Amino acid sequence: MAEQAQDKISELGNVHLLGIGGVGVSAVARLLLDHGLTVSGTDAKDLPVLDELRARGARVNVGYAAGNLMDADTVIISSIIKPGNPEYDEALARGLRILHRSEGLAAAMEGHHAITVAGTHGKTTTTALTAHMLRSVGASPSFAVGANIASLGVNAELGQGSIFVAEADESDGSFLNYRPDVITVTNIEADHLDHYGTAEAVHQAFVDFARLLPEDGLLICCADDPGAADLVRQMRRERPEVRVQTYGFSDWADRRLGNARPEGDRFVATVEWGSGESRELNLGIPGEHNLLNATAALAVGLHVGLDADEALEALGSFTGAARRFEFKGEVASIRVFDDYAHHPTEVTAALRAGRAVVDQGQLHVVFQPHLFSRTYEFYRQFAEALSLADTVSVLDIYAARENPIDGVSSALIADRVAVPCAVLDNEQAVSRVVESAAPGDVIMTIGAGDVTHLGPRIVEALETHQR
User: Fold this and answer.
1) Is the distance from CB of 6 to CB of 18 less than 8 angstroms?
2) Which DSSP category does 69 fall into?
3) DSSP state of 146
4) Beta bridge partners of residue 359, listed in sequence order
5) Cα separation of 152 and 130, whole Å?
6) Are strands 182-185 and 113-118 parallel, antiparallel or unpaired?
7) Last residue in a domain, options 316, 346, 371
8) Total domain count for the chain?
9) Domain for residue 388, yes or no?
10) What is the predicted pLDDT for the residue at 305?
11) How far apart are CA 376 and CA 406, in angstroms?
């Protein structure tokens, strides 16, 4: 089967990737290089990842031009590549094979026991925890994660083992291109409504994804999440031959968490399962949401035959994913963290983790809304989530792929936050948190846009302020 899979991926020939600097496309590029293919690509910006790919032997261009395709047989694109891009248009004109990033990843997964992790929130950390656990116990998994992971060194790698762990992105429905043997669903909520239109369509996409499981497949779902719990009930009715396992704090969870508590700089809980066994889950990353993510990874580990104690020890050594409560620095006992949270549920989880870390101090937040459409849908929920902080600075909306919507601005959120809050530009926000913070406090930058760049600036400003 492995030889057949290698033959199939070899059929791609010379592969050229558009948007090769993006985390998803660069992951595919790494995997194709690991498979021994000739790889080239282009991105609009000269990013550090491009040098890493060049060092691996890829020919990488900065700036799109039709001539960059050269002798490509297959072109792989990200969702943001549209007609009008000169390389995309050239590929069409030449009749080249054009694949979405997800189809490229699906080709790289051929011949493996495919474990996919999906969900509106938490899928990156859960994928990373699962890959880290398997690698730590010597299983040599292949993996593709939607962030850089310090303990893994890269966001994707072709391992020597039979298991492939992949983050399954639901944002554009492209996870339906995979053929999973195991699906983990962390949660299902309304999001990416610019693509789906309605919450019902989001839920249906997850149902369609779960239906891809083979008869001997396994569905692992969070019992605490209403959307994931609905999926469990539906799949048990429709596909009784597919095994279903649940995890969470709920009494009906198969892998059940309890007694969650911080212990120093660790976060600890008891995890039990149906056989009457129980163990202590002891993590180096904060928050109940990460206890859930780690329990989902543990369920995968038990599924593939890992010893429970070995799996738990491996999970306990995980240090986190980039931009998931990522520590940026400490000055005068003021700690600065950065988090990718860009949905109200994610913001709530991030701030609860911040609360667990800050203890008796204050929590200061710089938040950047992501997308006009998401701000319009969830501004009340964002305001409620941000009210868990002590002070909030809200930046202008990061538009990303969208045009402005009349009447939609960051003030929709800021005006409803129940703690001191203001809409500020970057410099004003940095000054405000630096002036407000005292020893023992925590500062968090939150959002999916370029707010991530403020963390180091805040650390530098704190150092200047303390002189």
Assistant:
1) no
2) G
3) S
4) none
5) 11
6) parallel
7) 316
8) 3
9) yes
10) 95
11) 10
Q: Which residues are annotated as catalytic?
A: 123-124, 167
Reported as a single tens digit per residue, the pLDDT across 404-446 is 999 999 999 999 999 999 999 999 999 999 999 999 999 999 9
127 and 274, same domain (yes or no): yes
Please tell me what DSSP assigns to residue 329. E
Structural domain contains residue 133: yes
Task: Mark whether 120 and 268 lie in a shared domain.
Answer: yes
Neighbours of 384 (CB within 10 A): 17
Specify if 176 maps to a domain. Answer: yes
| 446 class by beta-carbon count within 10 Å (0-12 exposed, 13-18 middle, 19+ buried) | buried
Q: Token digits for 74?
A: 């297959």
pTM for the full model?
0.79
CA–CA distance, 351 with 353 (Å, rounded to integer): 5
Q: Where are the beta strands (DSSP E) in 24-118?
A: 39-43, 59-62, 74-77, 97-100, 113-118
227 phi and psi angles, rounded to 5 deg: -65, -45
Residue-wise pLDDT tens digits, 113-170:
999 999 988 899 999 999 999 999 999 999 999 877 777 888 999 999 999 999 998 8
Candidates 207, 213, 208, 251; CA nearest to 233 is 207
Dihedral of CA 145/151/157/162: which sign? negative
Do 174 and 269 fall within a single domain? yes
Cβ(351)–Cβ(385) below 8 Å: yes
| 100-125 residue pLDDT tens | 999 999 999 999 999 999 998 889 99
Lowest pLDDT segment from 3-12, 42-51, 210-219, 284-293: 3-12
> Which 3 state secondary structure label does DSSP give 114?
strand
Instruction: Tell me if 261 is assigned to some domain.
Output: yes
- Which whole-number Å values give the CA distances from 178 to 114, 116, 208, 335, in the listed order? 9, 8, 11, 40
371 φ, ψ to 5°? 80, 135
Same domain flag for 154 and 95? no
Three-class HEC string of 167-236: ECCCCCCHHHHCCCCEEEECCCCCCCHHHHCCHHHHHHHHHHHHCCCCCCCEEEEECCCHHHHHHHHHHH
**Residue span of the structural domain in which 211 resides:** 112-316
Q: Which amino acid is at 149?
A: I
- Name the one residue in this structure whose structure tokens are 């003030």: 411
Same domain, 253 and 123: yes
